[in-house]
Design a protein that fits this description.
The protein is mainly α. About 75% of the residues lie in helices and about 0% in strands. It contains ten helices and no strands.
């Protein structure tokens, strides 16, 4: 019963972290998605026509206004709260469980990696439909008949359209590809994050993990997010293209292999897979820094309350 009670607090803390993080960082996510979905850069034009993060932001603000950066915020908040709760709580549950079974306990890299895989697999059931709807809303810059509608109404219209055309499977387009992107991302993130936390504890032996200052969580998560975000960008570009069904002139190409082949041949080879990398890192770093700092700080506060 005590464990169940603690996990309920974990769910509440992670939900709070998700809500705050998504509201703050959603504009960066919109810019990242637009840059990744851009199929205009070809092998013949090289990189001089590739828009930068600042250029894209300036163009959107000038032509569409700041509200355009918040396209898809409704579905993002609705799904990211249960997704983040599942993600962080299941990671902690698996970490504690596997720590009893595997050598090295909860500080083992094997435990961290295995827990991250489970956390990503379960939370992906929420992340994937969010990404399918959010990505399409974020990249729809000529909104036609939807112009003037609220974000919630646009989301509802899009969800109905996806269901009519593809059924429930349409909301899970790219689920396996998402795991291919985010399992390496999550494993890299948590392996790096846990190591950095242990280094912080080693520098202050009198502190336990829950007693670390907030900036230790902030710096550890930011550095880990930068590394994980950069190395997983290539597949994230492919995932985004598959989920929004964008493949430049070859409109019927929606398989991951087809998208990769088209990008390689028509968008500058290897450089095509670096699209949006800066934007992705710029989005990931504050996202994980805010969410993990809030989550870890609230857990630490809870531990101190119990101790007293």
């Amino acid at each position: 019963m005590d464990s169940l009670n603690e996990y309920s607090y974990s769910i509440a803390f992670s939900a709070s972290a998700a809500l705050v993080t998504r509201c703050i960082t959603h504009p960066l996510d919109t810019l990242k998605t637009i840059l990744q979905a851009d199929a205009s850069s070809s092998a013949s034009t090289h990189c001089r026509h590739r828009p930068s993060l600042i250029q894209t932001a300036s163009s959107i603000l000038r032509t569409e206004g700041i509200r355009a950066l918040y396209r898809g915020i409704s579905v993002s908040v609705a799904f990211s709260v249960p997704a983040m709760s599942t993600y962080l709580t299941s990671y902690d549950v698996m970490k504690a469980t596997l720590g009893h079974w595997l050598p090295g306990g909860e500080e083992s890299a094997l435990v961290h990696g295995a827990s991250a895989v489970v956390a990503e697999g379960l939370s992906g059931l929420f992340w994937t439909p969010m990404e399918v709807l959010k990505n399409r809303l974020q990249t729809n810059r000529s909104q036609g008949m939807d112009r003037g509608l609220s974000d919630i109404k646009k989301t509802a219209n899009l969800a109905a359209s996806v269901y009519r055309a593809e059924g429930l499977r349409g909301f899970y387009k790219g689920y396996l590809l998402s795991l291919g992107v985010f399992v390496p991302y999550t494993v890299t993130f948590f392996l790096t994050y846990e190591q950095l936390k242990m280094m912080a504890i080693a520098r202050t032996p009198s502190r336990s993990q829950q007693e670390l200052p907030f900036y230790a969580f902030l710096l550890s998560s930011a550095c880990s997010g930068a590394v994980a975000g950069a190395i997983s960008n290539a597949l994230d570009v492919v995932k985004t293209r598959v989920q929004i069904n964008t493949s430049s002139s070859t409109q019927g190409t929606v398989s991951a292999l087809g998208v990769m082949q088209h990008m390689w041949q028509n968008e500058g080879g290897l450089r095509a897979f670096t699209k949006g990398m800066v934007a992705r890192v710029v989005w990931v770093v504050p996202s994980v820094a805010i969410s993990m700092t809030i989550y870890e700080s609230l857990k630490g506060w809870r531990k101190r309350i119990i101790a007293h």
